[in-house]
Sequence to fold (112 residues):
Amino acid sequence: SDGSIRLHQMTSEYPLLQWNDSTKGQPIIALQWALTRPAVFFALDASSNIYIWDLLENDLLPVAKQTIPSEKVITMTLLGEPEKANGSLGIVLAKESGQIDIQYVKKKWALP
Fold:
């Protein structure tokens, strides 16, 4: 609820990494690991900002931020085929009006 993200290992109650205030205080409403690239995850905050984290490139800050300006995004999910080496990865955005958008991610964050 405060924009903090914690990375846990299943065998410990304590986080391996923690990023406080990663969304400048906005609640995170969805977070998902990339299906095609294990070191990448995406976070959506309550202000319709999508943050892309690539832990191999930078483990302190997101590597990109994209604001969806037209309408409030209420949730997101990712689509891709991890068994295929083409690295195609999409973000499905559900907007408040009921509209669904699919956006494809740059190859550098999608390739295995």
